[in-house]
């Protein structure tokens, strides 16, 4: 049975944390439902048997009795799809000539069901020997130029041909092809199909009455048809000719004046879809060239149409339209103005005007002509000025208020199941223009952020548990929330005047004071970490008598809890006790726990950035523009296709030694690193440019790099491609070293192009810190590194790489003072960078230059001894803290001179760096100084995608497949232009589209809007060339076989064959991987599992399962030092990019193959999957993995009494001990615990015997002293002993 969610008034799910709300509204059949349904019984009888025979009557009966009779119930479709109806029965037995209509429609239904469930729909069809039907040119023929035969008047076609002569040539070619065709039926069908389809839609649309009962299927059909038209209009290949046909058929006006639109209820979705169709029908793009039209060009086209109308009015309608002909254009572009001029015309005059304007006046369906009202609407729609989308967006509040947040539509979208279309933009493979791309993302991102904010607010308010107290009638919060505090004082301090053309204040500034004293230290630290530009929400709650009652889902949330107002704000300052803003540098801890923040209403950063971009001149690199929009040759942005490639690349430490070089080279002579390699592409291009080309030399260069033939492995090719300009796409399967590739590319860019700036972006702070720490270990000057965001404090280093901690000016100036003191020069020379510069010029160089000249001349003339050089060295006192002796006794003259010059280079570097940051003298605040570092000094800037609004030459994105597309694209747009062109030179995207996509909580935005599609995944689907890393070094080869089928030629690194831990078995387990079938326990399904594995990560696909397992572990294991907690209990989604030695799996709804790949690829040494086998063994998408898992027993097989580490070979499966079921497992664990307790008692008795042999005095000292470091280390050592003992099992 389905659970009804129509009456729910909250985004909080009924029985799950907020993050699982998206799944709450979907129907997921239980095992019993699957087994008992008639569909499953038919599947077992007809197509799941090995010797199943084909019977076409079965297909017809299932369609009529199971599907059509039940109105195509979702449950029936899901069960048919789950039983592999398409793969095993429908498609293998499909014959074009013999198949019935029910057979064809059944295939359509199964493909649609797969799409609804987000399961690959076409693979079963393609694998059965059919080309990918999605790529057939036949589809485009249905909306080609031939469809213009269906125009209401041929003069419209001639008008279009007059503006584009190429169209006329194509038309003549089609006419010739049709004339010479032997069978014209197919061509006739192609050119009339879309027109006939629209006519059929109009018939259905006008069959729906304005009042009374209506057919829900007819309305659903009309809504789906509008969705289809929107899809055609939203992609350039299909809209090129179709948009003109849509205008000729007047579908927009027919829909607007239809009885359905006039209905008070039931037409809301249809109206919303109609608005989207209207928007795309008039989109700012040239339909034939695909060029985006600017506002001034759109205005010019609009004026041109009005001018033509005036010419016709003046020439043919002088008596009735003379005022229109003589009016200025601005007075005839509004609806009411046009009605004034067209309204007085009679029906015959309007028809005559339509003939002059090439407008269809005869009915599309039926006979006769349209009435006056209809034709007036057509004329107004043609000449009315279009409302600017930019103006619409500017009028929207980017911060959602209480009305936006608690709109009922927000709740409905979270339970989207795919049954109906939605009035949402779709993120497809192709986009019309950059503006179209930003607009779709803006709308989706705004809705998604609104949804998430509402979830957070509802969760917080529910936890606060407000109620009204008597007799005061004041609010009281009986609960508490980690992410919310009660405001103690709120004072508005400034209200600025509205901006020009607006009627609301441009800014409202207020002081907010709150107390934190009653919270734990960890929560206090979180609130203390607030800083400028952090976003907060202010809630106004007025509780009433019913607020304290238990909340029911069908009750409006705002009304129940008395939530009156919601306003967003941004922190502008943290105010100290003295009333002055606290500087971020060395920000003191506020001990009285009464912080005051000053905030003003501003927009959410990403939404504001998108809105600002839409109003600016968008500049995308020319080499990336077409690929990004999804048109043209997919490989056009690859470095091989670009000009101005670097002549040589310094690979630095990419190739570690000569043995490493020999892997990719045929060179025989030994070379020493670093290796500088010149590539053949550049040398060949240079030879081709020369006037006299030697063919033999050109042929010789084709496969030659400098002095050797070079065969590039994938990892080195990825680094080479990333160092060259253009777009680099690196697909990194699990354990193949994606992070190392990113680090090496960044290091090579830093050394080969020192004048360029590189932006490093990742999805998470953890991944960012991993990369940043590896970069720190390379030969990169620390002053050129910058880490932005909240995760900087988690870096494993004592250095500060935040933009506030990178100011070295003060420490450098202290060195200047120390140098002045060592030279006996009085004065405050380290006061500023300017005084330091004068000191260097007049005191350092004036003494250094005569001295070094004397030393260098002595090297030539041999008139200065080493002893004189040492005695006269002017910086001896300054380098007194350097390793001594500064000059070795046996150092030669040349060696001593090198030491002297090295010392001066150190001093010179101090003053060089001070000169570089001399601009700090003009910057008063640390914020300005930090931004100076960001823009002037830092060469490698690392941040998460939420901060990526900066301007740089190169962008490197790791985890690119997990980043929302718009968050990936924003850094590519926000580049400083050079002569009107983007300065962006390289885009390196590193990720894995076969693993988890970006997290989108709302199901409608995720599936219908396709918001979970990353830019990386879209590029892969478009066919952009990728470099696939092909060697994994994480998992045992046998475990890797569970997921490497998803990749092309994924092999293993030698380490997984050679290291000892990979050669030996997992202590206590018979197999290195195994699937364990978990049947009902005590007649029930999954209720309270008993997971126990030491130092094992437990992954589950549901947050609900995660919470349950954690609770069980907390109650049964955490208190017992013999067991303790597993290393990690989390969801699959949160564990991508990490690894562990062993892994257990509670498999939930995992038909998404990407989630399966992540789950299978985390383990290094052991993988143990716990699941209900019957649910998954028939899943077509999982067969490659589950077939391999099922090669082994499905009962847990252990090797008891085995010590850790094991000396048994990994392929030794002898002496297994089988755990039959949950009861058996419980008994075994209990017996093991008893044995451990006995062992612990024996150990304790032995220790007590040793203590009794000690002196009483020592015994008292040990017991009565406070624990010192030794005792703590001893305790830790004891814990380690227990842990090691526990590993016996």
TrEMBL record:
Gene Ontology CC terms, in alphabetical order: catalytic step 2 spliceosome; U2-type spliceosomal complex
Domain of life: Eukaryota
Bias type Acidic residues, positions: 1266-1281
Main location as per UniProt: nucleus
Listed GO biological process terms: mRNA cis splicing, via spliceosome
Subunit structure as annotated in this protein's UniProt entry: Belongs to the 40S cdc5-associated complex (or cwf complex), a spliceosome sub-complex reminiscent of a late-stage spliceosome.
Stretches the record annotates as Disordered: 1-23, 1247-1289
Places the protein is found: Nucleus
Family membership: Belongs to the CWF11 family.
4Fe-4S found in the keyword field: no
CDD domains, sorted: EEXXQc_AQR, SF1_C_Upf1
Record keywords, A-Z: mRNA processing, mRNA splicing, Nucleus
Signal peptide: none
Keyword Hydrolase: no
Residue ranges occupied by any RNA helicase aquarius beta-barrel domain in the UniProt entry: 467-604
Limits of the RNA helicase aquarius insertion domain: 646-715
Residue ranges occupied by any DNA2/NAM7 helicase-like C-terminal domain in the UniProt entry: 1094-1172
Domain DNA2/NAM7 helicase helicase: 723-1002
GO molecular function annotations of the record: helicase activity; mRNA binding
Function noted in UniProt: Involved in mRNA splicing where it associates with cdc5 and the other cwf proteins as part of the spliceosome.
Start and end residues of each RNA helicase aquarius N-terminal domain: 42-127, 140-386
Name by which UniProt lists this protein: Pre-mRNA-splicing factor
């Amino acid at each position: 049975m389905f659970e009804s969610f129509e009456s729910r008034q909250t985004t909080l799910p009924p029985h799950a944390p907020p993050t699982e709300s998206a799944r709450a509204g979907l129907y997921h059949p239980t095992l019993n439902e699957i087994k008992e349904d008639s569909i499953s019984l038919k599947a077992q009888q007809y197509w799941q048997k090995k010797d199943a025979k084909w019977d076409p009557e079965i297909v017809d009966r299932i369609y009529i009795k199971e599907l059509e009779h039940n109105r195509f119930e979702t449950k029936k479709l899901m069960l048919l799809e789950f039983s592999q109806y398409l793969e095993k029965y429908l498609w293998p037995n499909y014959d074009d000539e013999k198949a019935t209509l029910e057979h064809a429609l059944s295939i359509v239904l199964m493909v649609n069901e797969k799409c609804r469930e987000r399961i690959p729909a076409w693979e079963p069809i393609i694998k059965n020997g059919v080309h990918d039907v999605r790529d057939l040119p036949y589809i485009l023929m249905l909306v080609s130029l031939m469809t213009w035969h269906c125009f209401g008047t041929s003069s419209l076609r001639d008008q279009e041909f007059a503006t584009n002569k190429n169209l006329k040539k194509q038309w003549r070619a089609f006419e010739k092809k049709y004339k010479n065709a032997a069978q014209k039926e197919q061509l006739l069908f192609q050119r009339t199909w879309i027109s006939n389809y629209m006519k059929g839609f109009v018939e259905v649309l006008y069959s729906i009455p304005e009042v009374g009962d209506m057919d829900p299927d007819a309305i659903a059909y009309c809504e789906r048809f509008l969705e289809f038209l929107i899809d055609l209009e939203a992609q350039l290949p299909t809209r090129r000719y179709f948009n003109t046909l849509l205008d000729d058929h007047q579908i927009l006006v027919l829909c607007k004046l239809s009885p359905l639109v006039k209905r008070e209820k039931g037409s809301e979705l249809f109206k919303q879809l109609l608005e989207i169709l209207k928007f795309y029908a008039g989109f700012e793009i040239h339909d034939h060239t695909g060029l985006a039209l600017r506002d001034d060009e759109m205005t010019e086209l609009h004026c041109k149409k009005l001018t033509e109308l005036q010419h016709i009015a003046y020439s043919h309608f002088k008596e009735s339209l003379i005022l229109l002909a003589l009016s200025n254009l601005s007075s005839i572009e509004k609806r009411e103005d046009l009605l004034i001029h067209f309204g007085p015309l009679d029906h015959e005059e309007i028809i005559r005007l339509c003939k002059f304007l090439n407008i269809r006046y005869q009915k599309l369906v039926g006979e006769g002509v349209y009435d006056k009202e209809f034709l007036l609407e057509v004329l107004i729609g043609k000449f009315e000025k279009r409302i600017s989308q930019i103006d619409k967006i500017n009028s929207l509040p980017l911060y959602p208020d209480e009305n936006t947040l608690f709109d009922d539509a927000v709740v409905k979208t979270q339970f989207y199941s795919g049954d109906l279309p939605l009035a949402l933009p779709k993120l497809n493979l192709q986009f019309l223009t950059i503006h179209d791309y930003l607009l779709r993302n803006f709308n989706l991102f705004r809705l998604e952020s609104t949804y998430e904010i509402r979830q957070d607010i509802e969760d917080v308010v529910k936890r606060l548990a407000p109620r009204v107290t008597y007799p005061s009638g004041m609010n009281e919060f009986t609960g508490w929330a980690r992410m919310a505090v009660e405001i103690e004082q709120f004072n508005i301090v400034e209200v600025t005047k509205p901006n020009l053309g607006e009627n609301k204040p441009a800014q409202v500034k207020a002081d907010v004071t709150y107390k934190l004293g009653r919270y734990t230290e960890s929560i206090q630290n979180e609130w203390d970490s607030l800083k400028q530009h952090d976003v907060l929400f202010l809630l106004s709650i007025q509780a009433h008598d019913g607020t304290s009652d238990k909340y029911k889902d069908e009750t409006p949330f705002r009304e129940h809890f008395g939530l009156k107002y919601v306003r967003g704000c941004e922190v502008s300052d943290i105010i100290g006790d003295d009333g002055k803003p606290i500087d971020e540098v060395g920000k003191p801890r506020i001990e009285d726990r009464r912080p005051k923040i000053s905030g003003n209403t501003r927009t959410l950063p990403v939404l504001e950035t998108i809105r600002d971009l839409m109003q600016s001149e968008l500049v995308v690199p020319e080499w990336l523009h077409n690929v990004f929009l999804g048109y043209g040759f997919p490989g056009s942005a690859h470095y091989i296709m670009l000009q101005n490639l670097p002549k040589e690349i310094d690979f630095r430490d990419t190739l570690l030694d000569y043995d490493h070089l020999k892997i990719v080279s045929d060179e025989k002579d030994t070379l020493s690193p670093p290796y500088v390699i010149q590539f053949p592409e550049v040398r060949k291009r240079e030879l081709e440019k020369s006037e006299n080309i030697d063919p033999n030399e050109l042929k010789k260069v084709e496969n030659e790099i400098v002095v050797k033939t070079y065969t590039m492995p994938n990892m080195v090719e990825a680094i080479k491609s990333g160092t060259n300009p253009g777009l680099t796409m690196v697909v990194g399967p699990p354990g193949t070293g994606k992070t190392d590739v990113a680090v090496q590319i960044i290091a090579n860019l830093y050394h080969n192009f020192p004048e360029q700036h590189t932006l490093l972006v990742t999805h998470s702070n953890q991944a960012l810190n991993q990369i940043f720490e590896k970069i720190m270990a390379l030969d990169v000057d620390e002053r050129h590194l910058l880490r932005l965001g909240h995760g900087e404090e988690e870096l494993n280093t004592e250095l500060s790489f935040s933009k506030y901690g990178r100011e070295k000016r003060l420490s450098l100036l202290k060195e200047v003072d120390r140098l002045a003191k060592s030279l006996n020069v009085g004065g405050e020379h380290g006061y500023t960078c300017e005084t330091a510069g004068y000191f260097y010029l007049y005191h350092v160089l004036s003494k250094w230059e005569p001295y070094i000249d004397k030393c260098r001349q002595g090297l030539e003339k041999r008139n200065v001894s080493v002893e004189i050089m040492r005695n006269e060295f002017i910086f001896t006192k300054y380098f007194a803290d350097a390793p001594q002796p500064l000059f070795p006794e046996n150092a030669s003259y040349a060696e001593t001179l090198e030491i002297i010059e090295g010392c001066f280079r150190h001093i010179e570097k101090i003053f060089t760096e001070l000169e570089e940051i001399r601009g700090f003298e003009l910057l008063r605040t640390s914020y300005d100084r930090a931004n100076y570092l960001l823009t002037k000094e830092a060469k490698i800037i690392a941040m998460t995608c939420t901060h990526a609004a900066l301007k740089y030459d190169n962008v490197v994105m790791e985890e690119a497949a997990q980043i929302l597309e718009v968050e990936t694209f924003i850094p590519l747009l926000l580049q400083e232009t050079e002569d009107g062109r983007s300065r962006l030179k390289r885009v390196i995207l590193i990720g894995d589209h076969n693993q988890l996509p970006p997290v989108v909580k709302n199901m409608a935005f995720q599936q219908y809007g396709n918001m979970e599609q990353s830019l990386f995944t879209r590029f892969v689907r478009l066919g952009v060339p990728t470099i696939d890393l092909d060697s994994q070094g994480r998992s045992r080869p046998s475990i890797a076989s569970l997921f490497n089928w998803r990749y092309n030629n994924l092999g293993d690194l030698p380490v997984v064959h050679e290291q000892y831990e990979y050669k030996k078995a997992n202590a206590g387990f018979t197999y290195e991987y195994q699937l364990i079938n978990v049947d009902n326990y005590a007649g029930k399904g999954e209720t309270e599992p008993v997971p126990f594995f030491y130092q094992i990560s437990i992954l589950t696909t549901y947050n609900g399962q995660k919470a349950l397992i954690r609770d069980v572990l907390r109650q049964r294991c955490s208190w017992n030092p013999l067991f303790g907690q597993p290393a990690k209990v989390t969801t699959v989604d949160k564990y991508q990019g990490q690894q562990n030695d062993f892994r257990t799996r509670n498999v939930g709804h995992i038909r998404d193959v990407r989630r399966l790949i992540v789950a299978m690829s985390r383990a290094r040494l052991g993988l143990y999957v716990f699941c209900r086998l019957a649910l998954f063994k028939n899943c077509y998408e999982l067969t490659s993995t589950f077939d391999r898992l099922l090669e082994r027993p499905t009962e847990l097989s252990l090797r008891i009494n085995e010590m850790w580490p094991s000396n048994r070979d990994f392929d030794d499966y002898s002496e297994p001990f089988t755990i039959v079921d949950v009861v058996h497992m419980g008994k075994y664990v209990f017996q093991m615990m008893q044995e451990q307790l006995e062992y612990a008692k024996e150990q304790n008795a032995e220790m007590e015997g040793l203590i009794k042999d000690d002196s009483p005095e020592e015994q008292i000292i040990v017991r009565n002293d406070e624990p010192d470091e030794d005792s703590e280390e001893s305790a830790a050592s004891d814990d380690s002993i227990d842990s090691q003992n526990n590993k016996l099992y």
